[in-house]
Amino acid sequence: MGYTRRNSKIDWWMVGLYTALVCFGWVNIYSASLTEAQSLLDLNEIYGKQLLWILLSVVLIVFILAVESKFYERFSSLIYLFALVALLGLYAFGQTINGATSWYSFGGFSLQPSEFAKTATALALGKFVGDIQTNIKQWQDQWKSILIIGLPALLIIPQPDPGSALVYAAFILPLYREGLNYLFLSFAVALGLLFVGTLLLEVNGMLIVLLVLVMGYLWWQKRNRHRIKWGRLFVTWAMAIGFVYSVNYVFHSVFEQRHRDRINLVLGKAVDSNSIGYNTHQSEIAIGSGRWWGKGWLQGTQTKGNFVPEQHTDYIFSTVGEEWGFMGSTFLIMLFVALILRVLYRAEKQKSIFGRVYGYSVASIIFLHFFVNIGMVIGLLPTVGIPLPLISYGGSGLWGFTILLFIFIKLDSANYVNIS
Amino acid sequence: MRKNLLFVLVLMVGLIFIGRLFYLQIYDSSYAKLSDNNAIRTVFDYPQRGYIYDRNGVLMVANQPSYDVMVIPRNMKALDTTEFCSLLNLTKEKFISAINRAKRYSPNLPSVVVAQLTKSEFAGLSEKMYKYQGFYIQKRSLRDYQVNHSSNVLGYVSEVNDYTIKMNPEYQMGELIGAAGVEKQYERILRGQKGIKYLQKDNFNRDIGPYKNGAFDVPSQRGTDITLTIDSQLQAYGESLMVNKRGGIVALDPKNGEILALVAAPNYDPALLVGRKRSKNFTKLYYDTIAKPLFDRVLQGEYPPGSPFKTLTALVALEEKVITPSDYVSCYGSYNYGGAKPMGCHEHQTPLSLTGGIAHSCNSYFASAYRKTIDKYPTPQEGIERWRQHLRSFGLGDYLGYDLPAGNKGLIPDADFYNRYYQYPKYRWYTPATISNAIGQGEVLLTPMQMVHFTSVIANRGHFYTPHIIKKIGLTDSIPKRYTTRQNTTIDPKHFDPIIEGMADVYRYGTASKPFIGIPGIEICGKTGTAENYIKLDGKRMQLTDHSVFISFAPKEDPKIALAVFVENGYWGSRWAGRIAGLMTEKYLRDSISRKDMERYVLGGSLMNEYEKPYSGKPFKINQ
Fold this sequence. Notes:
The complex is a heterodimer.
Chain A: H1 12-33, H2 46-66, H3 70-74, H4 76-93, E1 95-97, E2 100-106, E3 109-111, H5 113-130, H6 139-156, H7 162-166, H8 172-177, H9 182-223, H10 230-254, H11 257-266, H12 278-288, H13 301-304, H14 316-348, H15 353-377, H16 395-417
Antiparallel strand pairs in A: 1-2, 2-3
Helix pairs in contact in A: 1-2, 1-14, 1-16, 2-16, 4-5, 4-6, 5-6, 5-15, 5-16, 9-10, 12-14, 14-15, 15-16
Chain B: H1 5-27, H2 30-34, E1 40-45, E2 52-53, E3 59-71, H3 81-88, H4 92-105, E4 111-117, H5 119-126, E5 135-145, H6 151-154, E6 157-159, H7 162-167, E7 176-178, H8 181-185, H9 187-191, E8 195-201, E9 207-210, E10 226-228, H10 232-241, E11 247-253, E12 258-265, H11 278-286, H12 297-300, H13 310-319, E13 334-335, E14 343-344, H14 354-360, H15 363-375, H16 380-392, H17 415-421, H18 448-459, E15 463-464, E16 470-473, E17 487-488, H19 496-508, E18 525-537, E19 540-554, E20 561-567, H20 577-590, H21 596-604, H22 608-612
Parallel strand pairs in B: 2-10
Antiparallel strand pairs in B: 1-8, 2-3, 3-4, 3-5, 6-7, 8-9, 10-16, 11-12, 11-20, 13-14, 15-17, 18-19, 19-20
């Protein structure tokens, strides 16, 4: 008999980083939404509501940690099904806010099920991949896992909330970690390159590039005296050309003008003469005016002047940049990097595949949000409406990420117990 | 490799972000300067609202410049209040209360001190503004109406209220928003996008030009123009015909559902709701609770439709195969359905077939057809539901889905309605209890918009397009698909022929033939209506003079215009509504009027004394 620890061990690194992010987030929401000093728990004000959500998160955390850790694995399928039903139910009972039918409304508060569906999907994916019979290297299982990921995303797209659906792309990373063929990842990267390339060089330019690539390949194989795989080469080449031609169609017929504008802007193809990039431009000014140390809390003139729209939700990082300067915003980025790396580190330490896949999913989801949101606010990526985890205003988002992270903290704590 | 990919990715992204932040915050100092209050003034550049045109390209609504004096309380410095007040032409008390209100709203955001200065006031003020820190002049554009009609269609623009600002953070205090009519419906399109200008200031707080030649400015984007389906001339003519009457006229093009005219009477000049007199005028219109000029009678008024509804009764009966066009029904002045008092009818020849029934508007004919329809089913509940289902396929009893932000559902009662009313199952009710529905009285209520809508369904022999007022957005013809999708009713197209024939007979020998109120040379199909109505005044129910109702479409073989005319308390249908319908038809199809006699009659007629009767406090007689 080996030594068994009685008490489970909670990873205080993750808890500490979580707490730091949430507190820092609220401080900035307070600044971004404050019109006049009032009581902190004024439920008519945004910061008051958020404070209530944060306090309730503590209760939520206690619950999550109190539940037996086996529960999450055992009931993952049920939780996943419940999430799907909740997403489906939106089509019948959903409430429309800002043009998207993504909310259930209870009295004065509304809940956004897509924020919780991420956790459910991560659990289900962990359970499926962790199953003894699953071999992610086989194509049947690959398609099944893609189905698990894709179903909620497909339900979210028509709400319409393409931003939230995009987050599901993050699940490719844990699958890749578990042995998904690198072809999937390189296929995705190739598609992305072809898409951007076609927009930049037009179809004809891209065809020339493809031709050069093929010639290069042939030359390389000849030089190294490898056999040339004509069949594969032809199929790949034909698919690439087909995709290049479809890009034009998708770009001009499927995308809406605002999508086209955003992409063109970031690619540098369009000069911003029509104030398409108003939000990004204003948030760049706000961030840029922060200099080294920022203007100080509650002192941001851009923030106070309401120049940046949605600055308590998707554009909250602009307030951070303006009021806390380079130091503060770099600090926030480091907090995020530290949290994600810590989650990854603990994920690698998991004994069960379930735990590892779940941990990886948590890290990937937080990473994707972090990447897309801050990338957008500082003008590196096109505008996509997704929040900054734990920082942006929104009860559903906060709860969603709290549940996502603390289930992992619970799983991780139980991981120690099994050491024998 | 597999284990490290995400690690590396996260670190890389973190480094790229920090690098970008270094560029924005430390390396490039121009961003920092932009938000510096003492060196740079940031002003919003408000776009012009999109113009509104009529179907023939006539400009209906344009813009005029206007200037607001704004304040950001936080930036205020000590100032010579007396001098400033005299410049602004304002009393000291008003000035102080405006400043206090601004402080309450927000110390950091701009608020309006004086709204909508005239050009000359602006010229005198602009040179001296630099003396008053924290104050500046904001240019906006106000509506400039090119027409003095169509206020119910165009709507108006007003300052955003606190609620809207809270719900839509893109609006700020003092900004304008479409608050009714087309202005509200197409706000997002008309509004454009506001821009931002950065002006360099000297140390006397004077603007000395754009910062860095405007490199950081975000230009405003002008709102998109829209073209309406309204015919401005026809609309103006309709409004002139409705002077001194209450009610409305709606004209549709049955071929595509375009609204040609939407006249609500009484109406007001849209220019009343622009400029500094706006709020005074608005209050006056708003508190006129008797004439209710802000109440759009054609979209919101729910009236008993009266006899035009008989066409629908007949169509449902034909579809249910309980009557045929060649069945004759006798009528000896009344229809006895077993009630306390038989349903009265007027003098006409007897017996009548369907076409004759419509032409002479025989109550007995349609009461019997309605009764047969309902009684075809084992219980009156099932019968009513079936009848309602047919009417619902016309879109009646619900919002029609047109693109104007006002309207009412009307009422097509269902079985539950009568069950509740008669306390079923404690008491039972049978078809005769609902018999008045047959002739458009009873419980049925329709808006004039719904009436013209079913008229255009008849003109089309069973299909329709959702009525709409948008013709073009910008320069493209593309309007939402729901307005170009053909929809069908549950009635077989073949059943419409006898109805249309009957409506033509209305002019040939029926209720619109003596006196003849048609237009020589144009074959119009119409149907008169005389709708009994009651009001409750001080808790007392009283009957008022009947409403004069008329529906029509023309020309018969190739319908180009469908009309519904409703004249409150105008007595019988052909007296006012029928004549107005004829005049409108000719105006639209020929652009000239041959029936000058009819035009004189309508233009000279007034119903004002009729409207005063119930409020005079004296006993009065109706239907005189």
